[in-house]
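User: I'm designing a mutation panel for F-box domain-containing protein and want to avoid disrupting the core. Could you give me a predicted structure to guide residue selection? Please restate the sequence first so the numbering is unambiguous.

Assistant: Good idea. Sequence first, for numbering, then the predicted structure tokens:
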Amino acid sequence: MPSPAQTTKLSLEPEVGKPTQFQSCTILSLPNELLLRVIALLSTVSIPNLMVNRSLRSVCEQGLYRSISLPRYPRRSIRLLETFLHRPDLALLVRHLEIDFSWLFPGLFPQDQVPSAIQPDGLVALSLAKNLNSLSLAGVASWIWEPEMAKLREAIFKMKLIRLDVPLIRDPHTEYACVWPGDSDIEDDWNGDLGDEIRKLLQAQPLLEEFKFSDSSITYKTSASLRNNLKHSDVPSLKSLQASPHLAMAFLPVANRLESLNLRIEDWDDRLLSDMETKSTAIKLAIRHFTIRVWYHDEWLWSNLAKVFALFPKTEELSVAINSLTTATDVEPASYFFEMVGKNIYHLPSLRHIEVKFETLYPETPGIFEVGTDSLVEYKIACPTLETVVDPAKRLWTFRYNHQGSGDFEHWLVGPLIKERLAPVKDLPAPEGSNSLR
């Protein structure tokens, strides 16, 4: 017969085959790091529903304000700046900010709609986001050079940015500059060099790793100025660049840490290819992520695509964005362009991932992005190191050896990609009785 001590010991041991009993757990008992991961998966409109107590409110605010994207919403941007003024603690949470400053221009935005609290320029509110490291400034196309924008430049120069996106630059050197509402004759009086102004911006951001020129309307005069004067000390940390080919050539010889290159649309020809080959000599072996955006009707480029790919032979991830695929009867289907890309990637022996996508303003016709699965096999044959492919229908494919063990491989559908989270569908309504901007 067991002693009392033995009985106690046996009673503490879990019974074999029975599940261990866990203490009840609620969402409030999760660490903040896990809560933030959960909140990151929710839509912006859903997050406020979780603000049921002080603890959750604090975490939800971090999820709401860490990354803010309002690139085409001036009224929402105004309300955000107001929030910064009333809650400086929330401004400190912001790391990534895309904001629209078009309300600065009376011709575009009635000034009686701008709250007096953020006049005249909103820079006090913007400067409260002291922990900002990623910025996209929309709605002000001339802020890099225009004398009247000196205070805005000064505020941005003081930031410690890792990422900077310039959605639009109005180059004063073009003789066909558009006339914007509220413009003066300042362009005719300005004798500066936009290339020098861009260099000053870069020099003020020594930590900058990603630089994006979303617009490709920079003139040859500006790009030539940068090619002649840009130095390694201007971009010591740059790892990722998005620009037109002509503008990119100013960075390629001096950005020796560059590993990601996104070339915007441009009309290619033999001279551009030759110049790019010369300028990319020093950096071509460093590029691992290469993106190129092209017109579907650019006959020269489609005939010389292999030569363009050969500029960066160490590419491991390739993205080809085609603009645009229409429903017109005289346009080749997506499968044609998909096959064309596959026939020209043999110059990329290290390629592991490729995506071919279309940018179109036209409604999608059912089946317009379908491609033949035989083309996937051709991709793998051209690049044996290839692991994954994203087709125009946004489906992810990979490869596996067939079950017969013959040493051959076959394509295998992983599944459709998750669509990107949409930004707000519209701006805030204009005050009653005023003109609507958006």
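For picking mutation sites, this is relevant: The longest helix spans residues 74-86. Residues 292 and 397 are 21 Å apart (CA to CA).
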